[in-house]
TrEMBL record:
InterPro entries: Memb_transporter_dom. Residues 415-443 are annotated as: Disordered. The chain crosses the membrane at residues 21-42, 48-66, 73-92, 120-139, 145-164. It comes from Modestobacter italicus (strain DSM 44449 / CECT 9708 / BC 501). GO terms for cellular component: membrane. Residues 183-218 form a coiled coil. Keywords: Coiled coil, Membrane, Transmembrane, Transmembrane helix. It is found in: Membrane. This is Integral membrane bound transporter domain-containing protein.
Length: 443
């Protein structure tokens, strides 16, 4: 399970192995619980003595990046069905042996290639065909199919209902990864612009451009996360009501492509200027990197977006004022154009309308406010609050704690008897800054 897959937290170079293992504990626990539950269902409810397909299907279905586990589970079932059918047909035709195994495997993998083409479908089709042909008991094919359906059902419940990931959090985590890499690349470009030694200057410039070009992989991961977030709000029950904020954040995340492109153009054009011009551009690039780094720390915070917008606005106006007398066809003029575009792209990503951001750098408008970023939605489990146990059903003796816990979970939270509800906040307490905590009096 890689830490740099889309939807997962980025793994920094040189990060301790124990820390990476600690981050993987929660997904591994989910897969372990799903495998155990699938085995129990197959043994206790369906009475299968060796339901190895059930836990395997649950494990493989959840062994994907967040937001893609549901599709992974469905593809697994398709592969298992293709493999079982191909194995049984090959066994009925040739009667067993190496030829049966080869025929079943080849047929299953080719059919899976025609149906879907995903690696998990092809692999599961081949594995299922091998097991059917190797064990030599085609009568167990339907039983293995039932086991696979059980495991897939458990994986779908875990991925789409119980442990469905927060789509907005996935988007902002991926945005933060791209913005962090972009800020690091711009800092490297600023360092290269400040170099005085020619040989060190060339090495630093190449390193900075290489860092910025490598962001294409992170942008590809962001594109995958955008698609995954759309699947989550469409197929996951707890997050269906979060479609509007997720769509808004997906559009904002899509603008990072333009921001990365304008910053790469800024670095290339700035590094092509003369030594005297580079020193004046280095401060500009560093200030832009600082604004982007602030966005990377808290991309969903409105105050952070507002401050980054103000920094980008000051930078854009400075570029317009100082670049008015610079020939547009010169390297310095191209760098000024790129810096202006980068500052505008920062403001648009932060939540400013494109027309306002474009006009603000040429006017004296001081009150440029960003829109409120979408808030992270919550799971809507309250829809289950009207559900009741069947009439006539009673808890076994001694099961008081599970009964109380489940009842509290299924109904809206209420204050315990004898406790006073907290006072309602005043009209000015909603957006008030708490400020420093008052020290207790010595009296």
């Amino acid at each position: 399970m890689r830490g740099d897959e889309p939807g997962r937290r980025p793994v920094a170079a040189g990060e301790p192995k124990l820390r990476r293992a600690a981050r993987a504990i929660w997904p591994v626990l989910q897969q372990t619980a799903a495998a155990a539950l699938a085995w129990l269902i197959a043994v206790r409810l369906v009475s299968h003595h060796q339901p190895f397909f059930a836990p395997i299907a649950a494990l493989v279905g959840l062994n994907a990046s967040l937001g893609q586990r549901g599709a992974n589970a469905v593809r697994l079932v398709v592969g298992v069905i293709v493999g079982i059918v191909a194995g049984e047909l090959a066994f009925a035709t040739t009667g067993g042996g190496v030829g049966t195994l080869a025929l079943a495997t080849f047929t299953a993998m080719m059919v899976a290639q025609l149906i879907d083409g995903a690696r998990i479908v092809i692999a599961q089709a081949g594995v299922s065909a091998v097991l059917i042909a190797a064990l030599g008991d085609p009568a167990q094919g339907p039983q293995r199919l039932v086991d696979a359906l059980i495991g897939t059902g458990v994986a779908l419940v875990f991925s789409q209902l119980v442990f469905a990931p927060n789509p907005l959090r996935l988007l902002r985590r991926s945005e933060s990864t791209v913005l962090t890499g972009l800020a690091d690349g711009l800092r490297s470009a600023a360092n290269a612009l400040e170099q005085e030694d020619e040989q060190e200057d060339e090495q630093a410039a190449e390193q900075a451009l290489s860092q910025l070009r490598s962001l294409r992989d992170k942008l590809g991961d962001l594109s995958s996360v955008r698609k995954a977030s759309d699947r989550i709000v469409r197929h996951s029950i707890p997050w269906r009501s979060a479609k509007a904020p997720v769509v808004h954040e997906r559009e904002s995340a899509g603008h990072l492509d333009l921001l990365v492109g304008s910053c790469l153009m800024l670095a290339r054009t700035a590094l092509a200027t003369t030594a005297h011009q580079r020193r004046s551009l280095a401060s500009m690039v560093r200030r832009l990197a600082h604004a982007i780094a602030e966005l990377a720390d808290q991309p969903g915070d409105r105050a952070t977006r507002q401050h980054a917008t103000e920094q980008a606005l000051v930078l854009g106006r400075q570029v317009v004022a100082e670049g008015a007398a610079v020939p547009a066809e010169s390297p310095l003029g191209a760098a000024c154009v790129a810096a202006r575009l980068a500052s505008i792209d920062v403001m648009i990503f932060a939540g400013v309308e494109p027309a306002l951001a474009l006009g603000a750098v040429h006017t004296t408008v001081d009150d440029l406010r960003v829109a409120d970023p979408p808030r992270s939605p919550r799971r809507h489990w309250h829809r289950l609050s009207g559900w009741h146990w069947p009439s006539g059903w009673h808890w076994p003796s001694g099961w008081h704690w599970p009964r109380q816990w489940i009842r509290r979970w299924l109904r809206p939270r209420r204050h315990a008897a004898g406790r006073r509800p907290p006072p309602a906040p005043g009209p000015t307490a909603v957006h008030a800054d708490p400020g420093p905590q008052a020290q207790p009096s010595s009296e």
